[in-house]
Structure formats: structure tokens, C-alpha cells
Amino acid sequence: MLDFLNAYENYLTKVKQASANTVFSYMRDIRQFSDWLAREEDRNVVDATELNIQNYLAYLQEQGKSGATVSRSLASLKNFYGYLISTGFLDSSPVTAQIHVERGEKKLPQILTGKEVELLLAQPACVDPKGFRDKAMLEVMYATGIRVSELIDLNVDDVNLELATIKCSGAKKTRAIPLYPAALKALRQYLKDVRGIMVMNPGEKALFVNINGARMSRQGFWKILKLYQAKANITKEITPHTLRHSFAVHLLENGADLGSVQELMGHSDISSTQMYAHMINQKIKSVYEKCHPKA
Which domains does the chain have, with CATH numbers? Predict the structure, then answer.
């Protein structure tokens, strides 16, 4: 059974060239199903039946998982069994057309106000290397709207201080994103005075490093963000993606067109960007209903 999972993971990585995050998500869903199947049904994944799949989805729903999470798990399993069929391991898939999950209403992402962003960005105290690094990371994150995976994947060579841009290499294309003056200043200070102190290996390419001098991890940045959220007394639930969402909404609120925001965010489909325009329309409607005397 383990060989099937390893083979599929290798297929996703080498053949499909899926991103590390996609591979991680798919394999997590499949391994969670595999563990449940062995524990509850005494089966392995290649012997799963349609009833096993239905029971597992019901189990996820009983555990309080959202419709989107259950749908994603089903999609992961469907792709996995599709792979087993294509390679001759199976003749048919236990994920049949009769299995369907209601996704439910999509929850809109949390957005910070301009004041909350200012509060958050003001928290890192630039009195030691960690403070300068954290300030630069938060400023770059909000200045560019890049994904957390893109932030930690940045190398020193991706920064152009003269042009005030960073080069962000996504899954399908590379884009150059401008930096506003405060972000440029924070990044310049970090590169000039701090990074050299933190890096242990002179050949290290990573732009942002941890206290051990190695590339910052997603988990490391998450902890940094939660620390400054607490310091700023922001009660909203903030994730690394919150700054990305806020970046997009704030640009649109200030007159940016959808196409430009799509390009900056690296969306391949403009429908992903249109979600933010929908959020602004909802906000305007809410204000109207609350404030108009005839509403």
C-alpha cells in the first residue's frame, strides 16, 4: 500500500510537476483516508469500495469538517484512484459519479482594515536582527500580496533595490512586483545590516532566514504573524493569506482595475480576482442598508 502512495507522490512531483503545496494537500488527504480505512474498515486503499468512500465522507462531516474540506478530500481521492486506473493497478474507481458533496456557501476571507494593517506593521521593534527581519517580511508581504510560499521561496537575487521591485516565480510564470517606499526601506535595511549577521552559510540564497541562518519556513512565518497579531491586539483571525487578501481589496477600493490586480497576484483566471470585487460590492451594499434612511 505504501508503494502505491509513494508512486503517486512521485507522479505528482515528477510527471505532473505540481507545486509542493498541492502535493502536500493531496497526499495528506489520501493518507488520512488510508489511516481511517485501516482503522475503521480494516482495508487498504487499493481495496476501498464505494461504500467505504461514502462512509468516510460521512465521518468527515460528523467531525464538523466544512463542505469545502470534504469536497477537497473527495477530489483528492478521485484523482488518486484515477491514477491507479491509468497505470493498471485498478480496473475501476470506488469514487463513482453517484458520490456527491454539497460544498455549502463559500466563506469570504477575512480582511484587515487600513488601520489594522498599520497597527500590525508597526509591531516589529527594529532593535535587533529579528525585529528588522520581521519588519521587512511583513512589509514585503503587504506591499506585494504574494503567497506565503512565494515569500519564503524568495532569494536575494530576486530583489532589485534600484527598481524597487521583487521577482516572484510562481508555478507557471514569473512576475515583477513593485515595492512601496516603506517596504523598500525595510528590505534595504534588512539586506544591508541584518541578513549577513543571521546567515551561517555564505552560499545561502534565501532572502529571509530563521535564527539558525537557514531559509524561513511556512510554520516559522506563521508564528511570527501570530506574535505580532497578539501584540497589536487584533481580534480578527489572521493567517498569512490575510495580508494577501487585504492587499487585493485595498487596491480595488482605491481604484485599481481587476486586470492589474490579477497580474500582481499571479492569478491565472480572473474569476479568482473577481471574488475581491464581490467583497467590495457586498461591503457597499451593507453600508447602504445600514446608513440610507430609506433602506
Answer: 2-86 (1.10.150), 114-289 (1.10.443.10)
